[in-house]
Amino acid sequence: MARDHGFHPVRIRRIVQETADTRTYVLDAAFPYRAGQFVTLRACGTLRSYSMSSSPDTDDEFMTTVKRVPGGLVSNWMHDHLAPGDLVEVTLPAGVFCLRETTVPLVAFCGGSGVTPILSLVKSALATTDRQVRVLTADRDADSVIFRSALAELAERYPGRFEVRHHLDAVDGGFVTAERVRDFAGEDRDADFYICGPTPFMDLTERALLDHGVDPGQILIERFGSASGEPADPRPATQETDGTVTIVLAGKRHTVAQHSGETFLESARRAGLAPPFSCEAGNCATCIAQVTEGEAKMRVNNALDDDEVADGWVLTCQGEPVTPHVTVVYED
Ligand SMILES: Cc1cc2nc3c(=O)[nH]c(=O)nc-3n(C[C@H](O)[C@H](O)[C@H](O)COP(=O)(O)OP(=O)(O)OC[C@H]3O[C@@H](n4cnc5c(N)ncnc54)[C@H](O)[C@@H]3O)c2cc1C
Ligand code: FES
């Protein structure tokens, strides 16, 4: 049975101004989801993903939180045009930046809007487990801190189990340093470490944790965009092979010769098609399609769970053929 990756109209129930440039959109949606997941919004003729700041375990309402990105198309359109009562189109929740079945501490590092999925994870971990939870937020200044009071309330409600520390660039001598990351990680090297924020912040935090002796398998990262601004792990297409790639888009079949080193998304574009995509880095799942013939592998997969992969779903921006003839079907 195919999973529902289509778009659903949902009404905005209310909008909460969190900081000068960040708003929470409370949606009239009753979708099942896991803490840390995201929905993908269709707006302005394009697609963008937004994580839930609500927790399915503690919140009755379904909330996403969006920060303006300077010069950004969709985030600014949402802030400038959306009002309570408006309809928006979103996918069902997806993503693998979720809690694992474990009792080890949860230590999170987040910068800016990266706190959105972290708040959801923290609320669920505190409400449904006995785990120790610690969060380091990094922001420009005190006015930029999103969910400061929500995090403070959790610290009050869970004394001895939850600690939040705020790093403010303006008062703490600039950006977070590797030393500060190691200091916050402390001796909890076997914890689950969650990281979400601007790319340089995530890179520094990941490097610092690895240098601190943390196993890479203990580090979970949610990338809000392409790691470098470029597609992840780009490799130039090389030569035509004897194989074929058949793309089924809007019910129509298009077959092109296979090129080694080419993703399905690139093959589709070469066929003159315009399939959906957003991050082109394996993070958002907007480019999802199903392999119905042949086999594929993904270079990066930060968005599909094991069941989806077993069912043949593939991120076309990261998927490439393994067998000579592969058919990839986009949902209508
Ligand atoms: C899984 C996932 C979860 C996410 N969760 C959240 C969340 O909870 N909250 C949140 O706020 N965001 C989240 N994001 C990020 C979000 O999806 C968008 O990427 C973000 O809102 C920016 O989109 P935009 O359309 O406003 O900006 P875009 O138009 O995509 O622009 C992004 C940047 O590129 C620059 N740019 C645009 N066009 C050009 C050009 N032609 N040349 C040079 N530079 C250009 C812009 O100036 C801007 O700096 C998430 C992303 C992913 C993948
Ligand atoms: S476009 Fe985002 S995962 Fe492929």
TrEMBL record:
Sequence ranges assigned to domain 2Fe-2S ferredoxin-type in this UniProt record: 243-332
- FAD-binding FR-type domain location is 5-100
- Recorded GO terms, molecular function? 2 iron, 2 sulfur cluster binding; flavin adenine dinucleotide binding; metal ion binding; oxidoreductase activity
The record's section on Pfam families has: FAD_binding_6, Fer2, NAD_binding_1
Keywords, ordered alphabetically: 2Fe-2S, FAD, Flavoprotein, Iron, Iron-sulfur, Metal-binding, Oxidoreductase
* Record has Oxidoreductase as a keyword: yes
SUPFAM superfamilies with a match to the protein in the record: 2Fe-2S ferredoxin-like, Ferredoxin reductase-like, C-terminal NADP-linked domain, Riboflavin synthase domain-like
Any keyword Cytoplasm? no
Q: Which CDD domains match?
A: fer2 (cd00207), PA_degradation_oxidoreductase_like (cd06214)
Q: Which cofactor does it need?
A: FAD
Q: What protein name does the entry list?
A: Ferredoxin-NADP reductase
Question: Which species does this protein come from?
Answer: Thermomonospora echinospora
